[in-house]
Amino acid sequence: MRLSALGETGLIARLGKNFIKTGKDIVRGIGDDCAVIRISKEKYLLVTIDMLLEDVDFRLKDATPYQIGWKSLACGLSDIAAMGGVAGYAVVSLGLPRKLSVEFVDELYRGIKALAKRFNVEIVGGDTNSSKALVMDVAVLGFVEPSKLALRSGAKPGDIICVSGSLGGSYKSKRHLTFTPRLKEARCLVSNFRINSMIDISDGLSTDLNHIARESGAGACIYEELIPVSKDAKGISAALNEGEDFELLFTMPLREARRFAGKELCANSVKITQIGEILDRRAGVKMIGRDGKVRDLRPKGFSHF
């Protein structure tokens, strides 16, 4: 079987069968934005890693080295945000073509350091190697209190589905290179409201909502007219499937959604939009179009295979 037939999600599930969690301190292993490890009764350790490849996650002709460095750390910080956590440390590994200049590498690290400073993240190590194409591989460690931990698997029928910011057009606007991880917003959410599930939208709304539904054993229905489509997006398809938005997709009980409605999340925060509802798993994952027709919402976002 070729990888293209299995797909990225299928490959992760297949590999995950070889690493079923056995340690008593492993709260969550493969299958979420971060691994979660219990280090005390009051604190969990969050661990995530993201590999960015030249001509897959960025192109040298379209991105500055500063932007590439920024994004390489921002992806991991976005994963920490999706768990409701606080980022603490990062380890940076680089695969560097010999043709690159020292000044180029300096700019990569300037982008990394700028974002790290913004969120009080310490760069504590890494590795370098030669490679044919530029590779950025960044691991981020963070922390979260057990009461504030948000997983993909906690959505319940009756939950209201919410999303931060606007979706689509990330490539056109180059927002995928310059986005700010929603760490502040996520902490405000988990500190003030009951958040049953959360994920960051990296692969596209259609794919990441299906992740929540599958991990939670639930169905979902969203409304096309409620989806916040970016002004840079080429229609609803881009908002659903393009990916690289790095916004928060989360669910909360109806009573919490009512309490939340009309309130400012935190100072100068992004807009939060309620776009649908979690249903029984038998309902599947659907979208009600502007024409009133109900359609299956299949995962058509980004996949590496």
How would you describe the overall organization of this protein?
With 305 residues, the protein is α+β, with helices and mostly antiparallel strands. It has 2 domains: 3-146, PurM-like, N-terminal domain (60s Ribosomal Protein L30, Chain: A, 2-Layer Sandwich), CATH 3.30.1330.10; 151-296, PurM-like C-terminal domain (Phosphoribosyl-aminoimidazole Synthetase, Chain A, domain 2, Alpha-Beta Complex). The chain contains 9 helices and 13 strands. The strands form 2 sheets. Strands 8-10-7-11-9-12-13 form a 7-stranded mixed beta sheet, with helices on both faces. α2 (65-82) packs parallel to α3 (102-118) and α2 runs parallel beside α6. It is globular and about 55 Å long.
Largest beta-sheet characterization: 7 strands, mixed
Tally the structural domains.
Answer: 2
Tally the beta strands.
13
Number of helices: 9
CATH-level-4 superfamily name of the largest domain: PurM-like C-terminal domain
Q: Which percent range fits the helix content?
A: 25-40%
User: What CATH first level of the largest domain would be assigned?
Assistant: Alpha Beta
N to C succession of SSEs: HEEEHEHEEEHHHEHEHEHEEE
Mean pLDDT level = 92
What strand line-up does the widest sheet have?
Answer: 8-10-7-11-9-12-13
Task: Please give the oligomerization state of what you see.
Answer: single chain
Radius of gyration: 19 Å
Approximate strand percentage? 25-35%
**Structure class:** alpha+beta
The CATH topology of the largest domain: Phosphoribosyl-aminoimidazole Synthetase, Chain A, domain 2
| CATH architecture grouping of the largest domain | Alpha-Beta Complex
Q: Tell me the span between the first and last alpha carbons.
A: 12 Å
